[in-house]
Every structure is written in C-alpha cells, then in structure tokens.
Amino acid sequence: MKTLIVEIKEDFKDEDIEKALDKAAKVLNNGGLVAFPTETVYGLGGNALDRNASKKIYQAKGRPSDNPLIIHIANHADIERIAKNIPKSAYSLINKFWPGPLTIILNKKEIVPSETTGGLDTVAIRMPDNKIARKMIEISKVFVAAPSANTSGRPSPTKAKHVIDDMMGKIDMIIDGGNSTLGLESTIIDFTEEVPTILRPGFITADQIRNVIGKINVDPAVESLVVDCNLKAKAPGMKYKHYAPKGELIIYQGTQDKVIKNIMELANKKIAEGKTVGIICTEETKDKYNCAIIKVIGSRKDEKTIASRLYSILREFDDINTDIIITENFSDNDLGQAIMNRLLKAAGYNTVQV
Ligand code: TXA
Ligand code: MG
Q1: What is the CA(187)–ligand 1 centre distance, in A?
Q2: Does the beta carbon of 124 sit less than 6 angstroms from any atom of ligand 1?
Q3: Would the CB of 238 count as within 6 Å of ligand 1?
Q4: What's the CA gap between 166 and 35, in Å, rounded?
Q5: Rounded distance, CA 221 to CA 232, Å?
Q6: Is the peptide bond before 201 cis (omega within 30 degrees of 0)?
Q7: Which of 148, 192, 239 to mutate to test the pocket of ligand 1 (most atoms within 8 A of CB)?
Q8: Which regions of 171-247 does DSSP assign to beta strands (E)?
Q9: Residue 147 CB-density burial (10 A; 0-12 exposed, 13-18 middle, 19+ buried)
Q10: Nearest ligand 1 atom to alpha carbon 63
Q11: Which of 3-25 are b and which e, b meaning 16 or more Cβ less than 10 Å from the residue's Cβ?
Q12: 281-313: pLDDT as tens digits
C-alpha cells in the first residue's frame, strides 16, 4: 500500500490545514487509516464505528485483538452518542481536563462495535488537546478509534519519523504535525467501577483527579515496581510487553552516586565484550559519565522534559543498533510515576538495585 505523508507546519494558514485534513477525512470515511499527532503520542486512527477499520488497526499494529482502542472525539456532548450510564463525576472530570491527556472508560452503547472495544462492554474515550487532531475529527465527522501509532510492543511514536519507521506501506496516510508535546500516553480512569479507578498513570495525576471528584482507586498494577503475575492489569493493554527498544534495557535504582558508579562499571564491562552500550542520564548527571554513548533525557528539575523524550531516546538507541541501554531511575511521585511505569515496562522490569 502507498502511504501518503502530509506535513502540517505550525505556520500553516487555516485553509492549508483544512486542505490537508480534507484528505484525511476522505480516508477515514472510506474505512482507511490515518496516523495523526496528538499532544500525548501519535495515534493510528480509523472510523471507530466501522468494525473493519478497527480490524485494520489491529492488523497494521500487529496488536492482539483483545486489546481495546480509545475513541477520540471533538465535542464533550459526543460521549452520550457512544456511552451510557455516565456518572456525574465523569462529567466533572472531563469539564476540568478536556481537551487533554485524560481517557475515561464508560459503559458502551450498542453503536460501538465490539471490534473497537476488544470485545468489552465498556469504551475508552478521549478528547485530544492537539488542534490538528481535533480538527481532523471535526472535519471528518467520524469518531476516531486510535491506539498509539507504533508497531505493537515498540516505543510509542512522538514524532512523524517514528510513525514512518513503523507504519510505512501499512496505512493510507500519515499526518506530520511535529513533535508530541507531552510524550506519554493519557491517564486512563475507569468509571464503570464502584469507585473510579486509575488504570494507567499519565500527566493528569491521581491527586489532580481527587481534587475534582474525591475518592478514587489506583489499580495496584499501576504502582507495582516488579512483575507480579497475581496483579491482573484491568486495562488489557497494560499486560503486554510494551514500549520496548530492540536492545536490552536495564534500570539502575539507588542513590545517585552508587547508580552512576555501577552503570559505568557495567558499561565498561560490556564495551570490553564488544557490545554497543548506551547510557540514559540527566542534565544533572551527564558530566559524571566518561564511557559509552551518553544521551541526556532531560532535567530532574523539570520531569516534563524527561517524559517528552523517553520514547524518542529509546528509538534513537535502536537507530544505532545499541545492544545494551542502561538508565538511571527517576522519581516515583506524580509525573515520575507515569515515567517509571513506562520505563519499567520498556525494560521488562529488568532492574538492578544498588
Ligand atoms: O494518549 C493516548 O491515550 C494515546 C493517544 C493516541 O490518544 N492512545 C493510546 O492508545 O495510548 P493505546 O491503544 O496505545 O492504549 C490504550 C490503552 C490500552 O492499554 C487499552 O488496553 C486500554 O487503553 N483500554 C482501552 N479501552 C479500554 C477499556 N474499555 N477498558 C479498559 N482498558 C481499556
Ligand atoms: Mg500503545
């Protein structure tokens, strides 16, 4: 299949943006697939109410078909067309955080095919903050089912290059709208439980949500720092190997000095064995390393910088065929929790405590 790549630059006039999105709208209305930017990560979109489009999404990603998709909408009121039994607290939350990096899970209406929800009676819904994404949904008049636009298991895409690497020739169109500003997938909260429950951590933290709707639960699988087979993740996607680079990823945890010393020891050992070794460090620690390929992920003083570069840095190491990537660990509060949740999964929970 020929994949059309269309770039939408920041300085584009409205009419040029609309022209590009008209093409996307045609593709979506014809049951095709369009990868598009969102503020979290790039999405791989298809018509959520067209079961065949959803099947195509699973196929292009190589994703297990029991792993449901998120439906992207452009108007608050549209939740009522695809979901039922919507509690008041869900409205309070979306009024506060939409458009933005928050996905809510509700009971689905009949109109949503089971292919889109991985066979579940519930549906995940989000209104993205990215203008291109919302405009595409508006112009196409389609509810857009979209998982992250990566091949299943690989790091999520935060720029069009990542999507091109994974999806070229497999989908109809890729919209290049620059970098995803946040870089981590949305927070997911399930309103079909008696107490609303966070299934995936993200930019919108548990405390921010509590401030709006009071008591919530956090799925134990979210906070787990180890693989625990007894903890069955409620978001089906969270049980699969995820976000992984091709090389082996190892996380060192402990006090900063010890972490740096031990990372260098391992790096030197592996380099001596002829391996290509990468180190992920921060602005604060970069000068302490003197071996291996060093990449700075961001600053500990501003964890947003770390979040926005996490997936990109893993793919950069892949591009240079890095055998072993060793990383420092990050804080486990607020945004740090979302970062560590993804990093641990990317590493297959391969951690060393020093
Ligand atoms: O930020 C995001 O959410 C991005 C952008 C593109 O919007 N999308 C995204 O989609 O991360 P995906 O498919 O990569 O992750 C969706 C997660 C999966 O873990 C899936 O299992 C879970 O949401 N999910 C979807 N529907 C669900 C449902 N009805 N019940 C429980 N979990 C659900
Ligand atoms: Mg994903």
Answers
A1: 9
A2: yes
A3: yes
A4: 11
A5: 7
A6: no
A7: 148
A8: 173-176, 187-190, 197-200, 217-218
A9: buried
A10: 13
A11: beebebeeeeeeeebeebbeebb
A12: 999 999 999 999 999 999 999 999 999 999 999
Atom of ligand 1 nearest to the CA of 236: 21
Token pair listed for 75: 């108007």
Q: Is the CB of 123 under 6 A from ligand 1?
A: yes
Tokens of 20: 């590009």
Mean pLDDT, the chain, whole residue set: 94
Residue 286 Cα to ligand 1 midpoint, Å, equals 34
DSSP 156: P
**Span from the CA of 63 to the centroid of ligand 2 (angstroms):** 9
Whole-number Å distance between alpha carbons of 210 and 222 = 17
DSSP 148: B
State in Å: Cα 344 to ligand 1 middle.
Answer: 18
In the DSSP assignment, the letter for residue 141 is T
| Angle in degrees, 0-180, between the axes of helices 160-167 and 303-319, rounded to the nearest 10 | 40
CB 281 within 8 A of CB 264: no
CB count in 10 Å sphere of residue 159? 20
Spacing, Cα 351 to ligand 1 middle (Å): 26
Tokens of 241: 């190997």
Is residue 69 in contact with ligand 1, taking CB distance under 6 Å?
A: yes
d(CA 336, CA 203): 9
pLDDT band, residue 64 (cuts 50/70/90): confident
230 has a pLDDT exceeding 70: no
Query: 102-108 and 83-84: which strand pairing?
Result: antiparallel
